[in-house]
Write a structure and sequence with these properties.
Elements lengths: L9 H15 L4 E12 L5 E6 L4 E6 L1 H4 L11 E11 L4 E11 L2 H17 L17 E6 L5 H12 L4 E6 L7 H14 L1 H4 L3 E6 L13 H9 L4 E5 L7 H5 L2 E3 L5 H5 L3 H34 L2 H4 L3 H42 L1 H65 L12 E4 L17 E5 L5 E5 L12
Parallel strand pairs: 3-5, 6-7, 6-8, 8-9, 9-10
Antiparallel strand pairs: 1-2, 1-4, 2-3, 4-5, 11-12, 12-13
């Protein structure tokens, strides 16, 4: 008896497999594995595999679920993926469709991270007031990272591309694993202790990306306190942009990646050169403007009457001095004449009094009174004589005082007039030149002719004779 064989199409077989898987497996599975072959399509869907030591599980994550991820998946990252198994019938391939994904073991580490952040923030280690300024142009930078990792090359390349004159000093330290935080903290302390000789302006502490477990050394308290205590400014450059560690909070500045450390640490040479060119042009423009303004001011000064005829103000002053000298001499003569007139008037008044005649008359009266009145009359005569003596004394005293006052006024006026004597300035280095032809004082070139003999009077009545051999052309004066 022959058994009838059922024939299936390829599509039917794949459909049966899909049905069996959907009915036999749980509707929601959580799988732990390491990401490999990660690829995000331009549509937003993600395709990758989860692997362990023995097997590989193809996976897919649709765009709507991938948009809800709180981290950036990458190859080598251990995760916990939740989803269901599905069969893609057209190609006979099954996938694990992932709806949720978290880093493996993130629960305990995340809690420890949050507790550490809360503790150190409460102590003020994250406050901006403790942040040290990053030098604008650091000359020597110390790098604390693994010498075998890519981070050291990323940091060095980014620094040298922007500011080639900076010298880099590598201090190799482990960046993950047991005891890594203690060794990095010890390295920071050692560099601060030896910095008087090393002369480092800045430190960069960092490493490349990784899982939370890989970056955990930068979340430990010992490293955070070493960074806070450092006298050298520190830049933290740990992981990728989405990775934030305790070291980032404590450091004086944070670079989102090791490559970005150069952007934070040093200026861009091109920007500095462009700014220098701009400053040079600005200063040159200001200098030209100042020179132009000064040139205009100079032209204005040169066009003034003072520069066209520089001796004219001096001549005006000389003329004014001559006028003042004449006025003062005239005033002194008037004052002296008045003083002499006053003295003559006083003298005439004194002469009119004729004190010698009064004394003679009083003597005659005294004789008559003595002969007539005896002792009583003698007393009256004595008193009259005493009054006469006192009057004579007062008259002589008043006359002497008036004469002395007038003499003092006359002496003061004579001294003042002597100070205005034009020859008194000869003691200070000046001279007076007269034309021997006409005896006039030479004030301008117009006062002499070629061939005239000149006499120059100096101090102490010294004189010098000279002759005019030439004179400048007459300058035209503006109206």
């Amino acid at each position: 008896m022959q058994t009838k064989t059922t024939t299936y199409t390829v599509s039917e077989v794949n459909a049966l497999v899909k049905e069996v898987l959907e009915t036999s497996l749980p509707g929601r599975l959580t799988v732990q594995g390491e990401i490999t072959g990660w690829k995000q399509h331009h549509s937003g869907h993600c395709y990758f595999s989860l692997k362990d030591e023995d097997s590989v599980l193809p996976c897919a994550m649709w765009r709507s679920n991938a948009a809800n991820l709180k981290f950036r998946p990458e190859n080598g990252l251990a995760v916990l993926a939740t989803g269901f198994v599905d069969v893609y019938v057209p190609q006979g391939r099954y996938n694990f469709v992932v709806s949720e994904m978290h880093p493996a073991g993130v629960g305990a580490l995340q809690l420890a991270y949050e507790q550490m952040v809360k503790k150190l923030r409460g102590e003020g280690l994250f406050d901006d007031e403790h942040k040290k300024p990053i030098p604008a142009f650091p000359e020597r930078i110390g790098i604390l990272t693994s010498e075998s990792g890519a981070a050291v090359h990323d940091i060095a390349d980014s620094v040298h591309q922007r500011w080639p004159c900076t010298k880099l000093c590598l201090y190799p330290v482990p960046v993950q694993g047991e005891g890594a935080a203690d060794k990095i903290a010890a390295a920071i302390t050692d560099l601060n202790r030896r910095n008087k000789r090393l002369k480092l302006d800045l430190l960069i502490v960092g490493r490349g990306g990784g899982s939370l477990e890989d970056l955990w050394a930068f979340n430990e308290e010992v490293l955070a306190r070493a960074i806070f205590a450092s006298r050298i400014p520190i830049i933290s450059a740990v992981g990728h942009e989405v990775d934030v560690t305790v070291a980032d909070f404590v450091a004086d500045a944070r670079a989102s990646t090791p490559t970005k450390a150069g952007v934070v640490a040093v200026p861009d040479m091109r920007d500095v050169l462009a700014d220098l060119v701009h400053q040079q042009r600005r200063l040159a423009g200001q200098a030209r403007a100042c020179l132009d303004l000064s040139a205009q001011h100079l032209q204005t000064v040169l066009a003034s009457a003072v520069f066209r005829n520089p001796l004219l103000p001096i001549r005006h002053r000389e003329q004014h001095i001559d006028e003042l000298t004449t006025d003062l001499a005239e005033a002194m003569r008037e004052r002296l004449d008045e003083g002499r007139a006053d003295l003559q008037t006083l003298y005439e008044q004194v002469v009119k009094i004729e004190p010698h005649r009064l004394l003679g008359r009083w003597a005659v009266v005294l004789g008559e009174l003595q002969s007539r009145s005896g002792v009583a009359l003698q007393r009256r005569v004595d008193r009259a004589a005493l009054g006469l003596d006192q009057m004579t004394t007062r008259c002589n005293t008043a006359l002497t005082a008036v004469m002395n006052g007038k003499r003092m006024q006359l002496a003061a006026q004579e001294g003042h007039l002597a100070g205005l004597d034009p020859r008194s300035v000869l003691q200070r280095g000046y001279s007076i030149t007269t034309n021997e032809r006409n005896g006039r004082v030479v004030r301008t070139a117009d006062d002499v002719e070629v061939g005239d003999s000149l006499v120059t009077e100096l101090a102490h009545e010294a004189k010098i004779e000279s002759k005019v051999t030439g004179k400048p052309e007459r300058q035209r004066r503006s109206e």
